[in-house]
Amino acid sequence: MTIDTILQVSLGGLLLGGLYALVAFGLSLIYGIVRILNFAHGTLLAVTGVVASLLFTKYNLHPFFIALLLAPAVFLAGYAFYLKLLHPLGKRNHFEGTVGTVLVTVGAMLIISDVTAVLAGSTQRNILMRFESFEVGNIVISTTQLTILFGIAALTLAMHLFLTRTWFGRGIRAVTQDPVGAMVCGVNSTTLRALTFAFGSATVAVAAVLYTMSFPVSPYMGFPLTVKAFTIIVVGGIGNLRGALLAGIFLGVAESLTGLFWKAEWAPALSVVIMLLILVIWPEGRSRRPA
User: Fold this and answer.
1) Is the Cβ–Cβ distance between 220 and 116 less than 8 Å?
2) Fewest CB atoms within 10 A around its CB: which of 25, 128, 180, 244?
3) How do residues 78-126 score in pLDDT, each as one tens digit?
4) Under a CB-based contact definition with an 8 Å cutoff, are residues 33 and 179 in contact?
5) Separation CA 118–CA 133 (nearest Å)
6) pTM for the full model?
7) What distance, in Å, lies between the first and last C-alpha atoms of the chain?
């Protein structure tokens, strides 16, 4: 096995890890502010990816315009989902509220997967675009990979600026650091939580378009993505975008190299093993403000 092969596989792992990080960004914000474990988060990417592929196939829309269409739609759906189904559970005691949110999000995961499979089929789909490839030494790099890497970098930077330079971002940081103090200063916690849930869902829509450009999606592939996102926020820190990006890249490269040196069947289990090791070695975990 040559070093060029390892570098080629690592490049694919870098791309995959960046996409994992985009999925984790939204989940990290949702859990950091709303304190909800959204088990339907990865399924939202899978279903949105299926919709994106259908829009591309039937209407020949460019992925950029598909993202512009899907992000606001998913934002509104996430906002309504939180206010109508999740917010009322806050009136329950802690145990009932926690169990209720798990049941609601797991139920949503099953329902949207089944509905999508019935309407669009359960076969794998992706966005196939013709891009050129070029070589750097013996490593082949496609312009598709460069486009997706640019999209990952741009979305990460946009989220960082949004969280650090806007009122909404400052409100999120305030609620993260001192919820009571933020409410005293006039921050509407209910609206902020609903907007945070919607914003975290909308980032998944953009990630879904980028993911579908490189990897196939199907309605029932979402839960493993949710597990990987949980792993990333455990390793990288809740609300820490830089930590999530680094953890996602590490996970993606580790999975790719596992498939290369060992067996591809073991790669999906790697995220669970990493999370268990982190919990055993570092049980106090990490929690940081959005950055």
Assistant:
1) no
2) 180
3) 999 999 999 999 888 888 988 999 999 999 999 999 999 999 998 899 9
4) no
5) 37
6) 0.87
7) 40
